[in-house]
């Protein structure tokens, strides 16, 4: 591992070589939204404004989902639901994509590298003008084919080397590196000596957590242990006990909602009181609506956005009310659907006011020039994709990451939010 000073002297070629080991795999680091309270008051279609339907010929936008097979089903299908709702909203109320109706083409990658490659080929064959997704565990096999065909690859939280350092790929937030960096700064602030993360046992996930996690935690002066847990493990007690026996004074997880449930049950089984780090996939009604799991997750540190504005909550509530009426209009509870909504609205925000054609080349050129674009449903966070947010990771469009403390109750309220800039750790 490199020290902070050494990190500052590395060349971009060295960084690419380091990242080529592979970063986040099956872990899902979606965009958690923060509401001051329940969002039921905003769940009306009036928040959507007057209809303004798209009238120009349709364009196809692609979404690769970490669903199908045995991996990522619980999260991936909810993301798809949110993306479909957002497309319906854009087509009916926001003139589509610069007047063009959006056809959303979804491909489920089965949670495997082969599935990611197959879906990437599908995107090219269907002539999509952009591939959008909140997160994926299969970036290494998806990105090269998509960007190689001249199609912009737009993700909310990128993780793999290909997503973070490939021409034509754009990570609108700091992704997995920024979250790890923010957690390292939190650990330093609270004087944790050693943190152990239980991570979904996909090679790129484990290696990524070890490489980038090891880098930023060492720079922050905090020890880090990464413990692999096989996908589908119902009882994580042995791995959790290993973390405690190894001297960890805080524990964390990286995985989908099912993984999070098992993590919390193991924590409860062992009667632990250590500080916990979780990610937004834990913000599911299956967890927040469970008296036992809700109690266990309370007090966890969680990566999030800044405080969501009233207009954010009203818009999301309106979309949910009209297109997903059985879903909670509180984005803290339905965070996986919100993860699907965000990249669709982000693409529309990128192209708003653009004079470029709604083609793959036009969208790619526009995102490279767009500055301080507001990330939808984020409470005002912005992104600029000029390669300067984290200079060592050229695809990252924003580096700041907020961390708060998750509270009890179905609302999934997050308090004591603090914004961190982990760039110096890299």
Record the SSE blueprint:
Elements: H1 4-9, H2 12-19, E1 56-65, H3 73-93, E2 100-108, H4 113-125, E3 130-133, H5 139-148, E4 153-155, H6 161-164, E5 169-171, H7 175-189, E6 194-200, H8 203-220, E7 223-229, H9 237-245, E8 250-254, H10 257-269, E9 276-278, H11 285-288, H12 291-297, E10 301-304, H13 310-323, H14 335-351, H15 360-369, E11 373-374, E12 382-383, E13 401-406, E14 414-420
Helix pairs in contact: 3-14, 4-5, 7-8
Structural description of this entry:
The chain is α/β, with parallel strands linked by helices and 426 residues long. It has a domain at 41-174 and 310-319 and 334-399: 3-Layer(aba) Sandwich (Rossmann fold), CATH 3.40.50.2300. It has helices at 4-9, 12-19, 73-93, 113-125, 139-148, 161-164, 175-189, 203-220, 237-245, 257-269, 285-288, 291-297, 310-323, 335-351, 360-369; strands spanning 56-65, 100-108, 130-133, 153-155, 169-171, 194-200, 223-229, 250-254, 276-278, 301-304, 373-374, 382-383, 401-406, 414-420. The protein has a seven-stranded mixed beta sheet, with helices on both faces. A five-stranded parallel beta sheet has the order 2-1-3-4-5. A two-stranded antiparallel sheet has the order 11-12. α3 (73-93) links the parallel β1 and β2. The protein is globular. The protein starts with a helix and ends in a 6-residue tail after the last strand. The model is unreliable at 1-43 (pLDDT under 50).
